[in-house]
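User: Hi! I'm working on a homework problem where we have to compare a predicted structure to a textbook description. Could you give me the structure for the chain below?
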Amino acid sequence: MIVRTAIIAVVVIACTFTAAVSFSKNVARVDHSLLSAVLKDVVSNGRVDYARLKRDTRLSTYLTAMSKVVMASMSEDERTAYWINVYNAATLHIVSQHFPIRSIRDISIQGYPSVWKAPLVSTHTGMVSLDHIENNVLRPRGDARIHMALVCAAVSCPPLRSEAYTAADLQGQLDDQCRQFVRDRRHNVIDTTARTARVSKIFEWFIADFGGNPAGIVDFLYQHAGIDRPVRPLTVTFADYDWSLNVQ
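Assistant: Happy to help. Predicted structure tokens:
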């Protein structure tokens, strides 16, 4: 009976892994369709129905499947899409577990200064924190667009997409996120007449990823804002950050 139970357990684990990853010519293809289905159901205009998500077990199933993924044979876009999705899914899961709350910063994990520092995300190589994914995995890739894709469950953070990121669509999805966020006057206001730009605090926190100076931030803004760049420079200031929960 013990042997039979062990065999059944192995089969279940194998099936879960197969559902998450398929292999073609030794390149991993991670299936993020379950996350897309969840996001489609609970996200509207970037806001999340956490009450519904709290009753939905699919997010936990997705994260369990992702924890078994081995990334050795993935392309760079596959890895980036994987980590963005895991970060966002884990954030949603953590918040929904503690909902109702007013802010993600209300979540207290014993022994850690913030929810971002706690090792709450399970991966093939062990438990990691949201902070580790952002600062040690994604930021070193050198693509500042990831800051528009990672969602911190706050009103002032970039709006959450109602679909998962995929390797095939990643570049277009990241560009679209940047366009939406930069052009949203709730977060960023570019006034070429007054030669000012009042922008999200995200640009200040991660200024090193935007050239390390205000001029680099302005370059990023113009790249995605869809407006002509004036001859004279802009003065950059940073807006207050609203940490209220991005709940529907």
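For your comparison, note the following. Strands lie at 21-24, 27-30, 43-44, 47-48, 121-123, 126-128, 189-191, 196-199, 235-238. The longest strand covers residues 21-24. Good luck with the assignment!
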